[in-house]
Write a structure and sequence with these properties.
Blueprint (H helix, E strand, L loop, with lengths): L1 H26 L3 H6 L3 H32 L4 H6 L1
Helix pairs in contact: 1-3
Length: about 80
């Protein structure tokens, strides 16, 4: 699951980068001015990258927590109650 999120995150980042380059070179505009003008495409791209970044970070933290939970040594209280 995490690999797919990273893949989509990479594609969305490339699309956003391509859009920014296209705006800067051919249109002579900036992403911030497009967002302030409430254009749908730049707002959606920035939101998508932000959302995927949060999802990837949450997945990494959850994976590390699961590994720690499964590999943590048992204490005496936990071992005796099982």
């Amino acid at each position: 699951m995490l690999t797919e999120v990273h893949s989509v995150f990479g594609h969305a980042g490339l699309v956003l980068l391509g859009y920014v380059v296209w705006l800067g070179w051919s249109q002579r505009r900036f992403l911030v001015s497009e967002v302030r003008a409430r254009k749908l495409v730049p707002i959606a791209l920035v939101f998508l990258v932000y959302l995927l970044s949060a999802l990837a970070t949450t997945g990494v933290v959850a994976e590390l927590a699961a590994v720690e939970l499964l590999t943590a040594p048992r204490t005496r209280a936990c071992a005796s109650s099982s």
